[in-house]
Write a structure and sequence with these properties.
Elements lengths: L1 H39 L17 H12 L1 H4 L4 H40 L22 H22 L3 H18 L12 H19 L2 H35 L3 H15 L20 E6 L3 H13 L7 E7 L1 H13 L6 E6 L12 H6 L2 H9 L31 H4 L5 E5 L3 E3 L16 E3 L19 H6 L11 E5 H7 L1 H11 L11 H7 L4 E3 L5 E2 L10 H6 L2 E3 L13 H8 L7 H5 L5
Parallel strand pairs: 1-2, 1-4, 2-3, 6-8, 9-10
Antiparallel strand pairs: 4-7, 5-10, 6-7
Length: 601
């Protein structure tokens, strides 16, 4: 019994001791936890919209809490180096970005300075986008509006006629006539009459009315397409007419030059025979002098060639001009140079019709020119259809091809048998420098010294010759470079040795039906002198002044010879004004004959 009482007392004491220990432990945990919380907790008042200036920003404090306080617990010896490496990389990237931004800023500043320096300070303050004169208005806006209205009027007239709206069609037709009259030849708004504005307004009202009554998308589209096709055909016809008329103009001789030739011829045949002779006949066959061949039927052009050559020659007395013309101009050519001798130089004029050896039995081209087929080609091929169908080939039907003057260049040794070298000149050139250097050019046993004209695919053999013909394809390279007639130095010794005239005859005979080339002298020249032409420096001979408006002035100034090849000859009204002064410089407009024929006007 006593033993049970002791066991009960022991149990009660044990329970009381456990209760006291748990109470003490709970108090300890409370106070320690509260102290730790206070030392590291976040003050939630910091999330207020009006934080104190003394307090950190809540984001900064959170970063501080996460980075500094916890890092001592989270960073292990393995993690710490990696974190430090990341931090260093971040710092480097930030520094690089800052540097790049600085460089870009400097470049932009420099560019701005350059632009500001390039601005002309004299015009600063003068320009304003609000000023009336600086408005970007089209100067022909009203003109184009009127033309557009007229096109639509034509469309609606057709539709109105189709739908039997005769009243509206007549109203449109009347307004169209008035608009045409108001527009006239105007090309800008300043050219329009005062009534133009009213006509635009009236036409707009009629077109609005027509649109309400007649508009049909398919019909309008069809009519506009028909007008466009008609306009295209008109443009093509006008181009053909323009080509025809320009070719025709190029063939004609101006009245002034015809007048000059007639007056000179009359006066020449009134001279006694003893006064018709030129001095210096002993120089004509002297091979040590500088000899020129000039074949022309244009007195004024020939005079420019001779005058420009002599005026730029270093030793005029050593120059000899061999001039050949036809019987029609023989008297005029003689009279001009008798009245206007080329200083100390020698000149001699001959008549091609007096070359008795030059006949159809010897010369293939003469025989061909006299043939019925050639006469048909020249004279009957240009009747009713010549303006349209024949205009493309009109350049090949130039009357100069009927003249043997154009083919004499293939007979130089026959005309001048005692000479070793001769410089051939066309009559549409101007000499700007002394040419005697050409006689000392080494032609390397070639016959012809000429300036080449090929550039990329232009002026190569396939542009002149018919390479579908086996004779052409077998003997010539289609990509061979072409060259120019107009200023050519010929070695007459090599010419005779290689029988150049015989080669020319061979090809001319094979071209009886114009199957190898069309007409002209350049294609047979390319064939005859194939492999026998020495290229000269391009500054000796600048071409294109008769067709190209884009020749650089420096090229002309540096050229020894400039050539007006093309239709726009300097003695024609077609001539380009920018090049004409180079030619007119050598004409004496105060000369009595020039004045009497009004050539200076």
């Amino acid at each position: 019994m006593q033993q049970n009482s002791l066991e009960h007392s022991y149990d009660m004491a044990l329970k009381n001791g456990l209760f006291v220990f748990c109470s003490f432990l709970a108090s300890l945990i409370f106070f320690v936890g509260h102290g730790l919380y206070n030392s590291t907790s976040i003050d939630y008042n910091d999330f207020s919209t009006t934080p104190s200036k003394k307090d950190f920003d809540w984001r900064e404090r959170l970063a501080l809490f996460q980075g500094d306080d916890h890092s001592q617990f989270l960073d292990t010896p393995a993690i710490l180096p990696r974190r430090q490496l990341r931090e260093r990389r971040s710092e480097k990237r930030a520094a690089a970005l800052v540097k790049q931004d600085d460089e870009v800023t400097v470049k932009l500043e420099n560019a701005a300075l350059e632009r500001s320096n390039s601005v002309d300070s004299s015009v600063l303050g003068k320009y304003s986008i609000w000023r009336k004169e600086n408005e970007n208005e089209n100067i022909d806006s009203k003109v184009r509006l009127m033309r557009d209205q007229m096109i639509m009027a034509r469309v609606y007239i057709g539709i109105a006629t189709m739908k039997k709206k005769s009243g509206l069609a007549q109203e449109l037709q009347k307004q169209l006539k008035e608009s045409r009259r108001a527009l006239g030849e105007a090309i800008s708004d300043a050219d329009l009459s005062r009534s133009a504005h009213e006509k635009i307004k009236s036409m707009g009202q009629v077109l609005s009315k027509a649109k309400e009554q007649l508009y049909d998308c398919k019909l309008v589209t069809g009519k506009l397409r028909a007008i466009l096709q008609s306009a295209d055909e008109q443009v093509r016809n006008l181009k053909r007419q323009s080509t025809f008329l320009s070719q025709l103009a190029a063939k004609t001789i101006p009245n002034g030059i015809h007048c000059l030739s007639m007056r000179l011829a009359i006066d020449y045949y009134l001279l006694p025979p003893e006064k018709r002779k030129f001095p210096g006949s002993e120089n004509l066959e002297n091979p040590s002098l500088f000899h020129y061949a000039l074949f022309s039927d244009n007195v004024l052009a020939a005079s420019v060639v001779v005058n420009s050559t002599i005026m730029n020659a270093k030793e005029p007395a050593k120059h000899v001009f061999h001039l050949v013309t036809d019987k029609l101009n023989f008297g005029a050519m003689n009279m001009w140079f008798l009245l206007n001798p080329p200083g100390k130089a020698t000149i001699h004029v001959e008549n091609v019709d007096e070359f008795k050896w030059l006949n159809s039995s010897y010369c293939p081209v003469l025989r061909q020119l006299e043939s019925a087929a050639m006469k048909e080609y020249y004279f009957k091929g240009s009747h009713s259809t010549s303006l349209s169908a024949g205009s493309s080939n009109l350049k090949y039907r130039n009357p100069k091809y009927l003249s043997m003057l154009n083919h004499l260049r293939f007979y130089l040794p026959q005309i001048y048998p005692k000479l070793d070298k001769i410089l051939f000149l066309d009559d549409d050139i101007v000499v700007r420098k002394d040419l005697t250097g050409l006689w000392s050019v080494n032609l390397h046993e070639k016959v012809n010294g000429a300036v080449e004209t090929c550039g990329q695919s232009f002026h190569r053999f396939d542009k002149y010759l018919n390479f579908s013909n086996p004779h052409i394809a077998k003997n010539f390279d289609p990509n061979a470079c072409g060259w120019a007639y107009g200023m050519n130095i010929f070695d007459l010794k090599e010419w005779k040795k290689r029988d150049i005239t015989g080669i020319y005859h061979k090809w001319q005979n094979m071209n009886e039906d114009r199957v190898l080339w069309k007409l002209g002298t350049l294609p047979p020249g390319l064939m005859t002198f194939y492999g026998l032409t020495h290229p000269l420096n391009k500054s000796w001979h600048v071409l294109g002044l008769g067709y190209s408006p884009s020749i650089d002035k420096s090229e002309i100034e540096n050229a020894a010879v400039i050539h007006y090849n093309g239709n726009m000859k300097p003695w024609l009204e077609l001539a380009m004004a920018k090049y004409k002064s180079y030619w007119t410089k050598y004409i004496k407009f105060d000369h009595p004959y020039i004045r009497s024929c009004k050539l200076g006007e």
